[in-house]
UniProtKB/TrEMBL annotation:
Record-annotated ILEI/PANDER domain positions: 49-136
Matching Pfam families: ILEI
GO (cellular component) term, any one: extracellular region
Cross-referenced InterPro entries: FAM3, ILEI/PANDER_dom, ILEI_FAM3C
Top-level taxonomic group: Eukaryota
Entry's localization field: Secreted
Protein name per its UniProtKB record: Protein FAM3C
GO MF terms held by the record: carbohydrate binding
Length: 174
């Protein structure tokens, strides 16, 4: 049998299936899939250098928005405004591509930590990171993977290997 987004097992009732991958070096963009709907990918041509973000309605699983923010050559201010505008009950999926950390400041990191991230405070230059959290969550998300950029262990010249993650996101209940 094939499960939504190609994950390894079916999700229980009132859960949304998701699968995501960070970018590979500066060559292959990240991919984010929720409920068999590919929200962001290189094929869709809607990914870019920095932090790629997909927003999903926590009750219905419907896609709300996708954007990417260049954290190498761009400005962190639009990213902060975007993070502040996310509505309560929204599922937030993020994946890095190329470099997702250089322009991140304390305010941006705090806003991402409030979505349930525990690794964002340690995210560094060219680290690979994928994260799924939510606006208004009270706990740290179990859905997070982080690989440090380390010249001794990097899979690609100057970049760590791709991080992939799959799982079942609980549907928001009233």
């Amino acid at each position: 049998p094939r499960y939504k987004c190609g994950i390894s097992k079916a999700c229980p009732e009132k859960h949304f299936a998701f699968k995501m991958a960070s970018g590979a070096a500066n060559v292959v963009g990240p991919k984010i899939c929720v409920e068999d709907n590919v929200l962001m990918s290189g094929v869709k041509n809607n990914v870019g250098r920095g932090i790629n973000v997909a927003l999903v309605n926590g009750k219905t699983g419907e896609p709300l928005d996708t954007k990417f923010f260049d954290m190498w050559g761009g400005d962190v201010a639009p990213f902060i405004e975007f993070l502040k505008s996310i509505q309560d009950g929204t599922i937030v999926l993020m994946g890095t591509y190329d470099d997702g950390a250089t322009k991140l400041n304390e305010e941006a990191r705090k806003l991402i930590a409030e979505l349930g991230s525990s690794s964002i405070t340690n995210l560094g230059f060219r680290d690979n990171w994928v994260f799924c959290g939510g606006k208004g969550v009270k706990t740290k998300s179990p859905f997070e993977q982080h690989i440090k950029n380390n010249k001794d262990t990097n899979k690609y010249e100057g970049w760590p290997e791709v991080v992939e993650m799959e799982g079942c996101i609980p549907q928001k209940q009233d």
